[in-house]
Amino acid sequence: ENRIMARCGGRSLISSLLLLLVALLTISPSHGFVKTEKKIKSASFLSPKLVMNPGSVANPFLFDIDFPRGHIGIKGFDAEVVDQDDNPVPLHQTYLHHWVVQPYYVRKGFKLSQRDMPRNHGFSRHLGSKPDYILVRNGGLCRNTVRHFFGLGSETRKTSTRVPDPYAIEIDNPEETPDGYEFKWLLNIHAIDTRGVVDKSGCTECRCDLYNVTIDEYGRAIKPDYKGGLYCCYDKTQCLLRNGFDSVEEKTRTLYLKYTVRWVDWDSSVVPAKVYILDVTDSWEPSHGSTGDSQEHFCHVEYEVKPCKTNGDGCVDVKKKSLMMPFNGYIVYGAAHQHAGGIGAALYREDGEGICTSMPKYGNGDEPGNEAGYIVGMSSCYPDEPVKVTYGETLTLEFNYSSAVGHTGVMGLFYILVAQQLPEQESSLPALFQAHTKSVSFLSFLAAMVVVVAVVVLIAAVVYRRQKREDGYQSLST
Length: 478
Known about the structure:
This protein is α+β, with helices and mostly antiparallel strands. It is 14% helix and 33% strand. The strands form six sheets. Strands 1, 2, 5, 11, 13, 14, 17, 22, 23 and 26 form a ten-stranded mixed sheet that branches. Strands 3, 4, 6, 9, 10 and 12 form a six-stranded antiparallel sheet that branches. A four-stranded antiparallel sheet has the order 16-24-18-19, with no helix packed on it. The longest helix has 31 residues, at 440-470. Mean pLDDT is 81; it is low at 1-9, 20-36, 118-130, 427-447 and 468-478. Residues 1-32 form the signal peptide.
């Protein structure tokens, strides 16, 4: 009986020791030297209010908006239109043509206003020429117009803007702030109230005849062959309403852009990624001596899709553009921006090798995020392995729209995030220990684990030998 108890006790001891070893190996060591998902902070903000009436257009530039402060890494930026009770507003009531955010430096004590913002195609132009404020631009290529860091349109609710680990978009590095300046953010919202209008899709595509405009917001004549686009639906213009649907006081509503920012505090474990926006309307053409520098590019931002001559679903407008890349780096994220009628976009190498395909998601209901006939999301690309791109390499953009009917003011923008470097090479150790083999604390932890394993093995061997002797067996070594 004692022998059985001793044997059971020995086995129990071995089991306990093995359980202890497993527990020790599954506990993450403290002080953060084992990489886990970084603690992501999140906060939601409301833009200054937009006062909208049926058929009205708001396209303000709003300065010094609420935003997380300090040296941070942006991990995502999401937005949607809400009413004064924080209820989401559907696209068939207020169409979100686009929203864009961009950081800037402003001289301390100087306050920017709407009139300080020259615009072209609804986007900022020639900013930074004054010493009072300096725009912080994305990586390129469209320096004349598309300079923002984040921006989407009707697809905003169901398009992922998540920046994958361990990457983030570095913001407000104090070493880069010019003396005497402060770091701030501006927001541009372009919203169109389509309640009671004659033609909802025509209003959202900014058809000039529905807005009854012949001059742009600066008083310049609009060319007769310009059928629709941003020149015709600028701030405070009005889309044609149905007879009897007058813009009365009760129909006035107050709306906001509600935006949610996700970020991490910046430290050495975060790998920086830059925003690059490519435009299929870019005028750049390869030429002898071309460097692909941003000064060689002019982006028209929008274009017209003309209806095909034969009816049917097979009518597709295909627009392609090949562009020289101005960086060495690794693409870690990609997503396209299209308007209604869009049927997909792609980014690929000269040999046809695909890098990213971004497809639209159309709604089929009435509720916000599922509005029938509207693009409510674009698929995003998260490559399993970052896609290496070399300086001077040519990549091709392709944007496809249905041309069964015509479309005015459509866009073909491709957003990519590019890391200039990859994280440190991971070792062949288990995932718990990957990318931390150079850490002193990790080495200490690993050494401790080796000692624990050795002790457990030694105790187990002693117990095992004792059991064998008690059972009448002798070791071969005796």
